[in-house]
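Structure catalogue
Derive tokens from sequence
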Amino acid sequence: MSRSEFFAAVAHEFGPIQGRVVMRNFIVRDLGDLSALDALDAGVAPRQVWRALCGSMGIPEHRWRKSGALGFESDT
């Protein structure tokens, strides 16, 4: 998953406006108490950030891969 795919997946799951707020303001414990954007800027892989964000937000696991319809299924 590339950064641009990550941003598209966030917009798809949370909506474009709420997604930006979530990425910027929601602190994810599994990312070392960083926001998703801070984790990406620190070099954490987008796929790892996506999974941690979904898990922390209570998104059911079957929807973590829902973005696969948009081309994000691979673990790269």
In short: The radius of gyration is 11 Å. Strands lie at 27-28, 34-35. The chain has five helices and two strands.
